[in-house]
Give the backbone structure.
Amino acid sequence: MSSYIPVALARQTVERAGNRCEYCGLLQLGQEATFHVDHVQPVAAGGATVLENLTLACVSCSLKKGARQTGTDPDTDQQTPLFNPRTDRWDDHMEWDGVRAVGLTPTGRATIAALDMNRPLILAIREEETERGRHPPPSVES
């Protein structure tokens, strides 16, 4: 199975995401690196290259997620599925405490930990995004 993503599917994915990372909510506007259109379920794990399996991810979230589908919940030390932007609602699993992402569920906590969503650099970026009125991101229904 190929990981090539046709341009039309990539555009649809970006539009559906509102040009924001579907994991951390960062707006692509003003960022130096172009965000990635990724497979939620990796091709290596049988994921198809269809709109229902694609997500827009900032470079950091994309690289940190990689082909992983699970992560460790830091509260329980148990493996749990990572957040799936196609089937999960962000607000069910995570919330904002200012610029910090807070996990509400094992999936939310594992995703925040695996993607290192509260590292110092992204917190500084979110502070700047707050000043520009671009953080927090609007809630998105799946």
